[in-house]
Amino acid sequence: MTGGVLTLEELLARIDAEKHAFDQIVWSPASTRAIERLSAFARDTLQTELPPGYIALPRRNDGIDSNSYIIYGANEHARPFLPGFAEANMRLSDPAARFVFHGDSGHEFYAQERQSGVWVVLDRPSLDVIARFP
User: Fold this and answer.
1) Could you tell me if 26 and 13 are in contact, meaning their C-beta atoms sit under 8 angstroms apart?
2) First to last CA, the chain
3) pLDDT at residue 78 greater than cutoff 70
């Protein structure tokens, strides 16, 4: 813990422990090949580079589904369903769209504005920006 804030590794370990305690799925790390495909899709199709912090996630857990918050994995999982990053972005918009989607909840999408790189929370039905983060 750094200054009272959990590191990514600490947060994921806490989520994994909670999911194990309730006998829920914890996705294994994505393969190096799957992460390479993910990065190539982002670069070639979405015309964006994935942030290092996002790439760190599938190296540890290939996606997260915890308390109704979802972070997309390098792979789409069928049972239980978890969207893959590429599949979610292809379903949610065309490759030239304003946002790159990284996760969602029942009411919101978590995305990055393609041009500015600013992180945003979007209202799920309207795609209106309801919060911005550096």
Assistant:
1) no
2) 21
3) yes
* Closest among 117, 56, 43, 53 to 86, alpha carbons compared: 43
Q: Tokens for 17?
A: 């422990």
Residue type for 46, please?
L
Chain-centre distance for alpha carbon 29: 14
| Nearest of 69, 76, 62, 59 to residue 105 by alpha carbon | 69
Token pair recorded at residue 20: 């194990």
Q: What is the mean pLDDT of residues 43-49?
A: 91
Q: Are residues 107 and 115 in contact, defined by beta-carbon separation less than 8 angstroms? A: no
Res 2: pLDDT: 62
Please give the pLDDT value at position 1: 60
pLDDT in tens, 3-41: 778 888 898 899 999 999 999 989 999 999 999 999 999
99-104 β-sheet, strand order: 64-66, 69-71, 99-104, 108-113, 119-123, 129-133
Instruction: Give the closest residue to 56 by CA, choosing from 30, 85, 20.
Output: 30
